[in-house]
Amino acid sequence: MSSSNTTSFKPAIVVVDLQNDFCPPNGSLAVAGGRDIAPLINDLLSLPFALKVATKDFHPQDHISFASNHPAPDNKPFESFVTITNPLNSSETEVSRLWPDHCVQGTPGSELIEELDKNKINVIIEKGQDKRVEMYSAFADPFPTTVSSSRLGKTLKDADITHVYCVGIATDYCVKYTALDSAKEGFVTYFIEDATKPVDPSAVDDVRNELQKFGVTFIQSQSEEVQKVRSLTG
Q1: Are the C-beta atoms of residues 204 and 198 closer than 8 Å to each other?
Q2: Residues whose CB is less than 8 angstroms from the CB of residue 197 and which lie 6 or more positions away in sequence, other chains included
Q3: Which segments constitute the Isochorismatase-like domain (predicted)?
């Protein structure tokens, strides 16, 4: 899949977790400036991408990532960590940060923000539904022996997508891991940096350096890689 070969350029955009609980003023896990990227993302959604996907964190109330589901004193949101053992393979573990309750199924916090032009979205992918594992990536949990996966990979492949453009929240968590898995799945993957917002702005350089090692290209919304989508016939 060469980006220089127009015959193999069928791009998709994946809008990661642009949900109420991740945005000010009332989100339980609000990322600073989260709503500010909506106009830019709407502009990108107006381009002739072959597929336009939005993802949603969609947790059960007893999800393992919620600090409220762990005993004191090691249950402080943002500060405490938990070691998650793969329920399908006890030799696999992941250390994960604990968060405030967020994006609980059926709550307003789990809904996509009203500023997002949902009429332009073709597919909505829900993730993080298995209470036993953390799932930042919109593709699957991080374990080698997969416990929970979404239909994102199959949806992209069924549409013959070659290039994936990632935007949304948060730069250093769900967008990062979605882009990482996109590259691992074999898609040419772009991370549109000005169309994302981080939990921790100081982590962005580390995210960029890590993902570039896996072939993810960091671009801006006015980069030539986006202009190539603009030039497609809608």
Answers
A1: yes
A2: 31, 32, 33, 34, 36, 37, 169, 170, 171
A3: 12-222
Residue 206 inside a domain? The answer is yes
Query: Is 183 contained in some domain?
Result: yes
Whether 223 is in a domain gets the answer yes
Overall number of domains in the chain: 1
> Looking at the chain, how many residues does it have?
234
Residue 17 a catalytic site member: yes
Indicate which CATH number applies to the domain containing 170: 3.40.50.850
- Scanning the structure block, which residue is given the tokens 């890689």? 225
Does the active-site annotation cover 127? yes
Regarding pTM above 0.70, the answer is yes
Catalytic residue (one of 52, 127, 176, 197): 127
The active-site residue, picked from 23, 103, 166, 174, is 174
Beta bridge partners, 55, equal 16, 125
Instruction: Note down pLDDT in tens along the chain; length 234 residues.
Output: 433 444 699 999 999 999 999 999 999 999 999 999 999 999 999 999 999 999 999 999 999 999 999 999 999 999 999 999 999 999 999 999 999 999 999 999 999 999 999 999 999 999 999 999 999 999 999 999 999 999 999 999 999 999 999 999 999 999 999 999 999 999 999 999 999 999 999 999 999 999 999 999 999 999 999 999 999 975
Q: Is 174 an annotated catalytic residue? A: yes
